[in-house]
Amino acid sequence: MYDITGAVSLWNHLAETSKPIIIYGMGDGAQKILDVCSLKNVKISGFMASDDFVRGHSFAGFEVKKLSDIERQFGDCIILVAFGTHIDEVIQRIIAISDRHESVSYTHLTLPTIA
Asked: H-helix or E-strand containing 103?
């Protein structure tokens, strides 16, 4: 049986980590996560997208970068996956990222309602 007495909430973990936190995605889910991060005092260090979607643009004031650029800049980081997909190639890419970095998918983030 799992003992939850010493468990830390995901949001507390993200607020207290020394690792840079990167949001993977640029849509509505990314904006919702960014809004909650602001409420929960979670510092976001950047945004990334799949290589074919990076075109020198920005999202929420951050330059959107490729994973390789994020890794060069920050090294080890936490990736918040801010979108859902059923495309096998994208799912495999997310799995590969989670093999290298602590990762949390959008479905694992319980987002409070923001007025």
From this structure: strand 102-105
Structure tokens at 5: 């007495």
Give the integer Cα–Cα distance in Å for 70 and 19: 12
d(C-alpha 94, C-alpha 54), whole Å: 16
pLDDT tens-digit series, residues 29-38: 899 999 999 9
Strand partners, 62: 59
DSSP state, residue 61: T
Query: By three-state DSSP, how is residue 14 classified?
Result: helix
DSSP assigned state of 11:
H
pTM of the model: 0.84
Average pLDDT of the chain is: 86
Parallel, antiparallel, or unpaired: how do β-strands 58-59 and 62-65 relate? antiparallel
Core vs surface per residue 70-94: b (16+ CB within 10 A) or e: bbeebeebbbbbbbeeeeeeeeebb
Exposed, middle or buried by CB within 10 Å (0-12, 13-18, 19+), for 64?
buried
